[in-house]
Amino acid sequence: MHFSLAPWSFFSDLEKNLSKERGNLLGISVKDPYLEALFIHFLKRSEAYKGFTSLDGRSVDSDWFDRNLVSLDLFSNNEPIVITKAEHLGERVAIRFFEDYSKISRNLVFIFSSKSSFYQKCVRKFKDDLFFTITQPRFWEKETFFRFLAKTLNIRLNREVEAYLIKSLPDKSSDYVRAFNVLRLHFGNDCQNIQLARVRELIPPEFLDSFLLADLYSEKKKDLFWGKLIDLEVPESSLQEFFGFMQSHLLKLSDTSYISEKKSLNSYDKKIVAQSNLWTKSELHLSIRKFSKLQVEAKKGVGRVHLQVLMNSLALP
Q: Distance between CA atoms of 46 and 43, rounded to whole angstroms?
C-alpha cells in the first residue's frame, strides 16, 4: 500500500498510519531533513518500533543481509531495523530484498532522502507492505506548514508575529525551526505577548517573493517593482539568487518556443506567453544584461546593490 501525504496529515495520524495492516517493510520517502529527523523521533516513541537499530544504506551489503535478516543466531535480537539513506543501497543488495523477501525475519524501515528507483520498485512489488511519500509543501500551503511546525515544536505565537514570520521567512523547515529556536531562547515557548518590534530585531526579513516581483517587472510595472525591491531587507545571497532567476525568467519571455512543445500549460507558462507580448527582443536583452550586472553587484555587498537598484529605479522611462 502506498500513500502520499502532506507532512501535517502524515504526522497527525502517525500511530494510526504505522499500525495499518502490512508485511515486513515500511518505506518512507521524505526529502526534508527536519521532517526525516522528526519521523525518527516519533518512531523511537512508537510501540511497534521502540528499540530499533539504525544504520546507513551505504553500509548494507550481502553479508550483512545474511547475518542480520536471514540466519539469526541465539545471540541475535529481533528488534526492528531502520535503514536511512536507503537510496544508496547497492544494486546487488537491493536485488536480495526482492529475491529473498520471504526469508526476512525482522521488521524493516527504509527511509529514502532523495528520489530512488528502488523505492518505486518496492512500492510496485510489495503490495502488502506499507509505503509513505511525505510530500513537499506547495507554495500555497506555506501557512499550513508553518503552523504545523510551530505546533510540533510547541511554540505559541500571536497573530501579528505569526503573520510577520510567514511573510518574512523562506518556506523551508530549516528557516522556520531556526526562527522558533531563536524565539524559544529569548522568550520560552509562550511567545503570545511579545512585541513585533522585538521579533523584527531578532529575526529580520529574509523572504523574497521572486514570482510576484517577476510578474511586476514582466508586466512593465517597473516603478512598483523597483519600489518593492528597494524596501527589501534580505541577505546578499537572496538577491543574488533573485537576479539570476530574473535572467532566466526574461530569457523565457524572449523565446517561448519551448512552451509550444508542452501538451498542457501551467499557470506560469500561460503568464510567460501573455507577458512576452508586452516586450520587444531588444528590450528583453537590455533587461537581462541589467540583471546580470545587478547579480555581480550583489556579490560585492548589499550596500552597492541597494545603490544600483535605486539608480535603476530613478532611470525609469
A: 5
Report how far apart, in Å, the C-alpha atoms of 137 and of each of 142, 242, 294 are: 7, 21, 31
- In single-letter form, the type of residue at position 196 comes to L
Residue 63: pLDDT above 90?
no
The amino acid occupying position 219 is: E
DSSP state of 285: H
Look at residue 53 and give its three-state secondary structure: strand
* CB contact set of 101 (below 8 Å; sequence gap of 6+): 24, 126
Provide the pLDDT confidence category of residue 238 given band limits of 50, 70 and 90: confident
Phi and psi at residue 4, in whole multiples of 5°? -110, 120
What's the average model confidence in pLDDT over 172-190?
92
Mean pLDDT lowest among 12-16, 121-125, 230-234: 230-234
- pTM (two decimals): 0.68
- Rounded to an integer, what is the distance from CA 147 to the centroid of its chain? 16
Locate all alpha helices (DSSP H) within 66-187, ordered by sequence: 91-99, 117-125, 142-152, 159-168, 173-187
For residue 229, give Cα distances in angstroms to 207, 212, 263, 313: 12, 11, 35, 10
Cell triple for 204 = 529580520
Helix (H, G, I), strand (E, B) or coil at 178: helix
pLDDT at 303 over 60: yes
DSSP 102: G
Nearest Cα residue to 81 out of 57, 103, 98, 116: 57
